[in-house]
Structure formats: structure tokens, C-alpha cells
Design a protein that fits this description.
The protein is an alpha+beta fold. Strands 3-1-2-4-5 form a 5-stranded mixed sheet, sandwiched between helices. A hairpin with a 5-residue loop joins strand 1 and strand 2. Helix 4 packs across helix 5.
Length: about 190
Amino acid sequence: MSKEEFSENDWRRLLTSLGEDPDRPGLVETPHRVAKAWKHWTSGYGQDPVELLKAFEDGAEQYNELIVVRGIPVYSHCEHHLAPFFGKATIGYVPNGKIVGLSKLTRLVDCFAKRLQVQERMTIQIANALMEALEPKAVGVVVRCRHMCMESRGIRTPGEETITSAMLGELQPNLALRTEFLALAREQ
């Protein structure tokens, strides 16, 4: 089955269906800009998350403590309303002889965020990809986001934050390690 492309003409039709004139000066370029924006916002489908996480063993063999990156930006769109949700992610892992460049963790979050998502699934996808690529002793992921589908329509609850987490490997049974990760993940 071939993929049917959504064209600039489709965006023009959307504007018309909303009661707008797509030929008025402020909207003439909008279909082109929106088509380009959605290609960017959904570019995660074209990425292999495990490929992003090429591991290396340079000096990591003896490191066996938590590695945590906080404040990773999350910009995504919910699959239910195509509305944006945004916030920050924290990723931590305990290596098992392999580490990954810290910027790769940001790229991993971005890969899954640039797909139509629900926050819960995105959180576990990030954790599972890290487990698959690095085979670490433990992985923890915490994602905190605001959802525009809740803030701007329906219940209209501005400022509410949804927090999801995934704890894999030794973070599940080891309460001390879990507590340490969650303390490091906590916003200051």
C-alpha cells in the first residue's frame, strides 16, 4: 500500500473549511509552511532509535553508577487531537560495560517525540530502546509534560503537568537505586 501524501492543497482546503480565505495575504504561504512544519514534527518515523544509540566501550568498563541527563526537551503531538504536548525528560542508566554519548539521549527522546504519541507509550519506548541498544543494568525514564488538548479545550486545566515513568532492570527490585534515580530526576 502506497503512502498518500498530504499536500499543500489539503491544507488550503482545511483553511477554507474553517471559514478562512487561503488567498488572503496572511495565509498565502501558510499551506507551504504548515506542510513543512508537519514533516519536521513527524520526522521521528524515519529514524531508527537503536541506530541513534551507537554504544562505545571507551573507559566505561569500570563505571557502574547512575548516569543521568535531566532537562531534555520534549515537543510532541498527541495522537488523539494532534495537539502539542511539551515538557522535559530525564533519562538515567547504570552501564554494563557500554556507554553512549550524552547527546544521543537527547536525540533518542526527540526521535520518539517526533511521532504522533501518547506520553505513556513514548516513556516506555525511550526506556526499551535504551535497554535494547546498551544492555545496561538499569534504565529509568521520567517525562513531565503539559498537554494542550487538556489546557485549551475540554476540561481547560492550564498548567497541569502529567508525569510518567519507566523503570527497567535493577531499578525495579532495587529500592535504594530507584530512590537515588528519582531524587536525581526531581526538579530543583
